[in-house]
Write a sequence for this structure.
C-alpha cells in the first residue's frame, strides 16, 4: 500500500524541476506617477525592440521580452549568475488610462511604458471659496 | 496517508521539500509574482556571466540603461573590474523627479563596483568590449600556449 502511494507521487516530483527551469526571469520595475500619466520602467538586458512584447488584456498589462543574441554553441559557461532567456511580468491596471495612447520604447535593455490618464481622471484643483 | 509507512518511506525533510515545491507550483499557476530563485542577491549590479571558447574568454555584464562615460572597466592581471554610476531616474524621461511619486522602485540606482577573477589562460593585452541592448560583452583572448588544440590521432598499422 505504501509502495502504491510513492508511485503516485513520483511523476509530480519529476515535473517540478522541469517547470522551474522554464520559468521566465522577473525584471526589476520602477513605477512613477505624474499628473498626466503613469510611467513604468523595466530592466530587461539583452532584449531588443523586436523581441519585446507589451500587451493589455482586459485589465492586465503584460510585458514579455526575449534575449535574442545568445552565446553560440561553442561558448562553454564557466560562471553563471543570470539564467534564462526570457523575462515576464504583469500588473493589473485600472480604467483610468487611455489605452489607445500607451507608448512603449526600448533603449539599452530598458523598457519604458507610458500610460497616459484619460482626461477626466487628471487631477483638478478644487478652489475653496470663502462663504 | 497510510499509517503503516515505514521509515524508509517517510522522510520528514523530503516532505518539507515536497511542500515547498507544491507551494511554488501553486504560486506559479495563480500569479506571475513569484519569488526569484537565484544564486545572486536581488539588487546585484551588474549581473555577470562568464563563458569560454577554445581561443577566448567572454564576460557578459548585464548593465541596462547605463551611460558609457560613467563606467570604468579595467583589467589587471586576470581580474576584471567594473565600477561606475547609474541613475535609474534617467529612464523615466521626466524633469524634476520627485521621490515621493514612486509606487515601486526596484531598479538599481547609484554607484556600483564589482570584480571577477578570470581564468589564468587569458592574455590581458587582447581585450575588446562592446555595449549592445544593455549588455557589455568583453572578449579576452587566451595566451597562445593555453589555447585548446585539437590532437589528431593517427592510426599506426
Amino acid at each position: 500500500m505504501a509502495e502504491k502511494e510513492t508511485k503516485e507521487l513520483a511523476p509530480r516530483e519529476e515535473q517540478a524541476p522541469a517547470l522551474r527551469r522554464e520559468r521566465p526571469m522577473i525584471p526589476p520595475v520602477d513605477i512613477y506617477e505624474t499628473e498626466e500619466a503613469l510611467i513604468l520602467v523595466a530592466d530587461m538586458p539583452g532584449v531588443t525592440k523586436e523581441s519585446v512584447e507589451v500587451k493589455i488584456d482586459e485589465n492586465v498589462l503584460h510585458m514579455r521580452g526575449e534575449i535574442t543574441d545568445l552565446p553560440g554553441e561553442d561558448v562553454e559557461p564557466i560562471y553563471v549568475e543570470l539564467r534564462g532567456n526570457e523575462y515576464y511580468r504583469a500588473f493589473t491596471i485600472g480604467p483610468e488610462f487611455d489605452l489607445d495612447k500607451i507608448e512603449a520604447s526600448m533603449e539599452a535593455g530598458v523598457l519604458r511604458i507610458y500610460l497616459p490618464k484619460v482626461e477626466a481622471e487628471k487631477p483638478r484643483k478644487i478652489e475653496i471659496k470663502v462663504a | 496517508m497510510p499509517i503503516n509507512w515505514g521509515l524508509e518511506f517517510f522522510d520528514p525533510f523530503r516532505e518539507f521539500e515536497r511542500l515547498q515545491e507544491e507551494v511554488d507550483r501553486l504560486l506559479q499557476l495563480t500569479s506571475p509574482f513569484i519569488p526569484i530563485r537565484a544564486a545572486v542577491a536581488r539588487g546585484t549590479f551588474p549581473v555577470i556571466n562568464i563563458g569560454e571558447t577554445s581561443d577566448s574568454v567572454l564576460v557578459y555584464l548585464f548593465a541596462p540603461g547605463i551611460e558609457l562615460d560613467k563606467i570604468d572597466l579595467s583589467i589587471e592581471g586576470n581580474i576584471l573590474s567594473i565600477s561606475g554610476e547609474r541613475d535609474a531616474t534617467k529612464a523615466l524621461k521626466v524633469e524634476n523627479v520627485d521621490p515621493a511619486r514612486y509606487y515601486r522602485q526596484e531598479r538599481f540606482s547609484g554607484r556600483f563596483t564589482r570584480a571577477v577573477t578570470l581564468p589564468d589562460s587569458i592574455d590581458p593585452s587582447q581585450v575588446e568590449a562592446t555595449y549592445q541592448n544593455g549588455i557589455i560583452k568583453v572578449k579576452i583572448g587566451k595566451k597562445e600556449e593555453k589555447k585548446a588544440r585539437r590532437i589528431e590521432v593517427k592510426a599506426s598499422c
